[in-house]
Design a protein that fits this description.
Order of helices and strands: HEEEH
Radius of gyration: 23 Å
Distance between the termini: 13 Å
Shape: elongated
Strand content: 15-25%
Mean pLDDT: 92
Bound molecules: zinc ion
Low-confidence stretches: none
Number of strands: 3
Length: about 110
Amino acid sequence: MARHKTRTSAALLAARTREAANAPPLVDVIRGTLLRYRLTCGNPDCRCHRSRRRRHGPYWYIGVSYAKGRQRRYLLPAGQVPQAKRGITAYKKLWEKLCRISELNLQILKNQG
Ligand SMILES: [Zn+2]
């Protein structure tokens, strides 16, 4: 059976080198989702109970999922939101990059066989 070599081994190795070269900094990564809430308080006379637009906040959290459907939320001071966004973006980019490098490595393995 003919093997389909859509890319040469040299091209695959070059693509892998490029992928590995411009990875986001590992030290920045945050696995989670940024959550933004506006909330009502426990005081029924407060303005926040009269209109949805007058609720308190926004409050920012990072939501993180763990095994067995467990989730945790970390309250985030507003000043840390940009740093959190960078970390979450770095995580996503790094993860996508890992998936692409893994696919390239599978192709490289197939070409070696
Ligand atoms: Zn209130």
